[in-house]
Design brief:
By secondary structure, the protein is mostly helical. The chain has helices spanning 11-29, 37-51, 54-63, 75-79.
Length: 80
């Protein structure tokens, strides 16, 4: 749904981002769940479908610039 969404500030993207932040904190504070098949599947899915996309690569390139543009990143860019 995130890739198909044309609105870069859709609230769904912000909610999904917070959910992933919470998942990361949960796994960090409860390392025994790190090898859970469900957690492994979620991490693999996120890596394949979101982290290695062109949008994520563009986002990283923007962050590496010595002076960030004055534009504010959209929720979709912050998600990536």
């Amino acid at each position: 749904q995130i890739n198909r969404d044309k609105d870069d500030n859709d609230p769904f993207i912000s909610i999904a981002s917070v959910w992933f932040d919470n998942l990361a904190l949960f796994v960090h504070e409860n390392p025994e769940f790190d090898t859970s098949p469900v957690i492994c599947h979620i991490n693999q899915f996120i890596g394949q479908n979101y982290l290695m996309t062109e949008q994520y690569t563009f986002y990283l390139a923007q962050l590496q610039k010595p002076k960030l543009p004055q534009s504010i990143f959209t929720a979709k860019q912050l998600f990536y």
